[in-house]
């Protein structure tokens, strides 16, 4: 049996979910949105969470046996009838199983889109002798941030966009007070963002260094400094990294991030 729940629901504080919380941290953010659909199994062994227009996330407790799992998935399929999911994200075996049954029930196909590793850092190792300082992004950096966001779009997703199209997103990111730049002689050379704070973790994203400034330790420096800020707040920093980018994964591991479970993104078509 499935029921709706909100961001303060005990299901997000129970041990079964917290064992996978880094891997499924984005569920906290989804549950805060008014445009989200958040459902849990009544025995709290399964969570479905989706923001309208985006991939759904599906968590299933490792303690759940096959027969009750399949029953709950069939009930979920009935609830989702008439809804078109863009895709599904979560543990690879979990989402591949769901993708099979969802596609069969709806006459769809599915394709793997991305495999990410989730990471958490409880003790940061700051890189030594990196030139520059951390600086909170302000409106005077608007055009630079827009350029960085365009570069990030291409580097992370292979989507080319004009920097001018990113001005609004840059304004929004700067206004949160959570977007940081690494400056060398006053010039921005790298970027990272504190995307969200949940009860026990804070998620870092939009880590980007233009190609002209790479291999100098700037990304390591800006992320390490953000980790220090978050740890001082009593939160464990976490992030997701595309496994197709070994350099980024190495950077995160070198400054103290520990692997916490892979996440598969699957798209329906």
From TrEMBL:
CDD domains: NAT_SF
Domain N-acetyltransferase residue range list: 134-269
InterPro entries per UniProt: Acyl_CoA_acyltransferase, GCN5-like_dom, GNAT_acetyltra_YdfB-like, GNAT_dom
Pfam families per the UniProt record, alphabetical: FR47
SUPFAM superfamilies tied to this protein: Acyl-CoA N-acyltransferases (Nat)
Signal peptide: none
PROSITE patterns: GNAT (PS51186)
Protein name: GNAT family N-acetyltransferase
Species of the source: Paenibacillus taichungensis
């Amino acid at each position: 049996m499935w029921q709706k729940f909100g961001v303060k629901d005990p299901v997000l504080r129970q041990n079964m979910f917290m064992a996978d919380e880094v891997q499924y941290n984005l569920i906290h953010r989804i549950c805060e949105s008014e445009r989200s659909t958040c459902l849990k199994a009544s025995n709290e062994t399964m969570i479905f969470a989706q923001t309208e227009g985006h991939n759904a996330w599906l968590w299933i407790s490792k303690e759940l046996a096959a027969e009750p799992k399949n029953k709950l998935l069939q009930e979920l399929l009935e609830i989702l009838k008439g809804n078109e999911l863009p895709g599904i994200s979560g543990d690879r075996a979990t989402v591949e199983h769901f993708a099979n049954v969802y596609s069969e029930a709806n006459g769809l196909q599915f394709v793997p889109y991305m495999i990410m590793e989730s990471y958490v850092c409880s003790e940061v190792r700051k890189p030594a002798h990196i030139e520059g300082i951390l600086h909170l992004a302000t409106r005077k950096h608007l055009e630079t941030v827009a350029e960085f966001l365009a570069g990030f779009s291409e580097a992370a997703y292979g989507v080319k966009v004009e920097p001018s199209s990113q001005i609004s997103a840059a304004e929004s990111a700067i206004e949160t007070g959570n977007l940081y730049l690494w400056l060398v002689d006053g010039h921005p050379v790298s970027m990272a963002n504190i995307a969200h704070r949940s009860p026990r973790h804070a998620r870092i994203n939009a880590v980007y260094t233009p190609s002209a400034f790479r291999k100098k330790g700037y990304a390591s420096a800006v992320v390490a400094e953000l980790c220090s800020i978050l740890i001082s707040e009593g939160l464990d920093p976490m992030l997701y990294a595309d496994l197709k980018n070994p350099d980024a994964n190495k950077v995160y591991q070198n400054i103290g991030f520990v692997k916490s479970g892979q996440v598969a993104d699957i798209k329906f078509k």
